[in-house]
């Protein structure tokens, strides 16, 4: 049989091994938590960098297309002025004829029976 002191020694060895295992598990947990924290920080930094890059690209795109917007607006304004001039010219050219036709229709009335009344009499 194993002596009492040998048992005490074995128990002591097991307790020390258990403490060492607890320390190892605790260190592993702390290491994992630190890695997660570092990963979150790194991800946040990468997101900010990406966001900053995309904002700069957007500003550059906006600046490069701002001139073309002004050019397009000028072209539309010029087209509008040309169309307006054409419409005004057509109005001035035809207004007297239109007024004459309207007056002729209003003043010169031809009395005749309505088509429904003609059908009823027939």
Automatic annotation (TrEMBL):
Belongs to the V-ATPase G subunit family. One of its GO terms (molecular function) is proton-transporting ATPase activity, rotational mechanism. Keywords: Coiled coil, Hydrogen ion transport, Ion transport, Transport. GO terms for cellular component: vacuolar proton-transporting V-type ATPase, V1 domain. It comes from Daedalea quercina L-15889. Subunit of the V1 complex of vacuolar(H+)-ATPase (V-ATPase), a multisubunit enzyme composed of a peripheral complex (V1) that hydrolyzes ATP and a membrane integral complex (V0) that translocates protons. V-ATPase is responsible for acidifying and maintaining the pH of intracellular compartments and in some cell types, is targeted to the plasma membrane, where it is responsible for acidifying the extracellular environment. This is V-type proton ATPase subunit G. Residues 14-60 form a coiled coil. Pfam families: V-ATPase_G. V-ATPase is a heteromultimeric enzyme made up of two complexes: the ATP-hydrolytic V1 complex and the proton translocation V0 complex. InterPro entries: V-ATPase_G (IPR005124).
